[in-house]
Amino acid sequence: MGPEDQIRVVTPDDRTAGPPTPGMDRQQALASEAMWAGFVRTESGMMSGWHHHGEYESVIYVLTGSLTMEFGPSGARVVEAHPGDFICVPKGAVHRESNPSAQPADLIVVRAGHGESTFNVAGPE
The domain that contains 71 carries what CATH number? Predict the structure, then answer.
C-alpha cells in the first residue's frame, strides 16, 4: 500500500481555496484526476456568477440556508433546495446559485469527472 492509498482526514483547517466564482467561497478538501470535493458557502442574499463544471457531474448537499439554482436557456429554469436536500448537476450545465435565506448557505459538493472543475462564463445561451 503506497501513500496515495492511505485513508486520511481533512479538517476545516486543512482545506484550501477552491476554484473561484464571484459570490461563492469554495474550499477544496480533496481533488484527484477524477474527483473534487469541498465545502461551499454563499452568504445570505448573495448570488454567484454564471459558471459550469466542464466534464464533471456534481452532487450538492445543503447543510444550512437555502439554495436557488438558475439554469437552462436564458437561465429560465429554477430549482430550490433546503437543508437535507441533494442537487445533481449534469456535466456542462451552465448555472448560477443564490441564497435567499437569512443565514449563510453551507454546502458539501462532490464532483466526478476530469479536467478543470470550474469555468466562469458570461451566462447561459
Answer: 2.60.120.10
